[in-house]
């Protein structure tokens, strides 16, 4: 399983502005794009915590008038 054995991860984001990590060197799942952060699991999770400030999906943020995040 790539998540248990991988030491290197890449941060990924979907079209709703939601973030996750994905094992580096494996194909990204459909609908996700790579962010400019790659490294150890902890480093990637810290990056996500810093940039993903609004957990609501993009559609909901736009409907309520806030587009940040």
UniProtKB/TrEMBL annotation:
One of its GO terms (biological process) is siderophore biosynthetic process. GO terms for cellular component: cytosol. Residues 1-50 form the MbtH-like domain. Signal peptide: none annotated. Pfam families: MbtH. SUPFAM superfamilies: MbtH-like (SSF160582). InterPro entries: MbtH-like_dom (IPR005153), MbtH-like_sf (IPR038020), MLP_fam (IPR037407). SMART domains: MbtH. This is MbtH family NRPS accessory protein. The lineage of its organism: Bacteria, Bacillati, Actinomycetota, Actinomycetes, Kitasatosporales.
């Amino acid at each position: 399983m790539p998540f248990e054995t991988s030491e290197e991860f890449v941060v990924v984001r979907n079209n709703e502005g939601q973030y996750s990590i994905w094992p580096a060197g494996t194909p990204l799942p459909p609908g996700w794009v790579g962010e400019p952060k790659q490294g150890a699991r902890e480093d990637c999770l810290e990056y996500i915590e810093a940039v993903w400030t609004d957990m609501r999906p993009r559609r909901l943020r736009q409907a309520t008038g806030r587009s940040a995040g």
